[in-house]
Amino acid sequence: MRALLAMLVLPLWLAAAQAAEVGGVELPAVRDVGGKTLRLNGYGLRTWSLLGIHIYVAGLYVEHVSSDAEAIMRSAETKLLIFNFRHEVSAERAREAWRKALAANCPEPCRLESADVERFLAEVPAMREGDTFELRFAEHSAVITANGRLIGHIDQPVLADAVLAAFLGPRPGSPEVKQALLERHG
């Protein structure tokens, strides 16, 4: 009986033991997304200015943990990028940051359709402290939610890949967050 109890409790204990906490945000070690079990690959805190203002906590969940950004980006497997905002960000500021990140991570011969980019940017909301933003990637497409509410889809593989590259690509918006997403395996 003790052995059976240990077999039932041990996996729960291990999962809880591997959860992470950063910037006051708890990140579970495992997330169930669309029937797939995703593991916390890494997590980081995005700061801004010399004052170190905490903007958001980011977490990357993948089917198979890896420190290889290229392998993660090339994979058609399900990935989840979550953001928990620790500071208010206006829609205009967020959209400008996305515009720069997409341009930096889709160099020639990559070409993003301007109508697709504008449609995506129009879906980017203002974020307040405590708000969540999630990007779920699967088969080079993405589903976007804010505070648990669906706000859009990205069906164009080039745009979905550029959105993911904004965090894991060669020119991420924050090299520190990229490194953290790839280093701290859940």
Short account of what is shown:
The chain is an alpha+beta fold and 186 residues long. It is 36% helix and 32% strand.
Task: Describe the 3D structure.
This protein has 186 residues and is of the alpha+beta class. The chain has a single domain (20-183), classed as Chalcone isomerase (3-Layer(bba) Sandwich). The chain has six helices and nine strands. It has helices spanning 2-17, 69-74, 91-104, 114-123, 157-168, 175-183, and strands at 20-22, 25-27, 30-33, 36-48, 53-62, 79-85, 132-138, 141-146, 149-154. The strands form two sheets. It has a seven-stranded antiparallel sheet with strand order 3-4-5-6-7-8-9. The chain has a two-stranded antiparallel sheet with strand order 1-2. β4 and β5 (53-62) form a beta hairpin. α3 (91-104) crosses α5.
Helix/strand structural class? alpha+beta
Gross CATH architecture: 3-Layer(bba) Sandwich
CATH class: Alpha Beta
Biggest sheet statistics: 7 strands, antiparallel
- Low-confidence stretches are 3-17
Number of strands: 9
User: What would the CATH topology be?
Assistant: Chalcone isomerase
Portion in beta strands:
25-35%
Order of helices and strands: HEEEEEHEHHEEEHH
Q: What is the overall shape?
A: globular
Distance between the termini: 30 Å
Arrangement of strands in the largest sheet: 3-4-5-6-7-8-9
| Approximate helicity band | 25-40%
Round the mean pLDDT to the nearest integer and report it: 90
| Cα radius of gyration in angstroms | 17 Å
Number of helices: 6
User: How many domain units?
Assistant: 1
